[in-house]
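Hey Z.,

So I finally got round to the uracil thing we talked about over coffee. Here's the setup:
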Amino acid sequence: MDSLDDAEELAAVAVSLRRHLERHQRAGIGAVGRAVVSKTNGVAARGSGSPLAGAENDLFVDVNPVSETGSLEGLRAAIGDCRRCKLCAGRTNLVFGVGNPNARLMFVGEGPGRDEDLQGEPFVGRAGQLLTDIITKGMGLRREDVYIANVVKCRPPENRNPEPDEVAACEPFLKKQIELIHPEIIVGLGKFAVQTLLQSKMPITKLRGQWHSYHGIKLMPTFHPAYLLRNPGDKKLVWEDIKKVIEALGA
Ligand code: URA
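And the result:
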């Protein structure tokens, strides 16, 4: 290889390294595992804790801070001031999720409404109060015993359904939350959350009340609390579903 080739190769490495570091900077990460930036007399050093420690090609692997993280705090940091979809334009707060990171039971809704957007916490409006009643009065648990999250983390305008590109952008965060919490049971709230989790187009009326599996985790679909506010007659069906969850948790 002549010196021109060497110079070109060096330049390519420098560009690749800079892009790699910029990606991590954008993700709010100063240090990613072993890829810690340090310089010795202006030369990136090899050795433990150096940027080039580890496999030869680590530098060129696009490390994904969302999938790499091992904690909910790390996941929240990796999401950062999210601009991955158009919902960011209308949000006040990104609504990440709330509750016990070791919860046995997790509730998944659709996306934040107005109250949730303003407060930055899921299910705090009228539908949220009904969900809280289900958890506390119905199940005898405290809200902080369970974990509550949504499919999309930012409020869709006028509370419309999230669009496919918005779900696609946000779904990895929910998947990672579920992976990190690893609940025994997920209760899917409403058609949208359940169809997203199960990758199904079946109506919620057909899905609810039966156990399903989300990657090996028991999933109980039920009606959304907002639907129950409009159709209080169906509360008894939700109670049937919740009794199955209580029974499974007791086992
Ligand atoms: N509806 C949802 O699906 N999620 C919330 O957080 C609030 C209302």
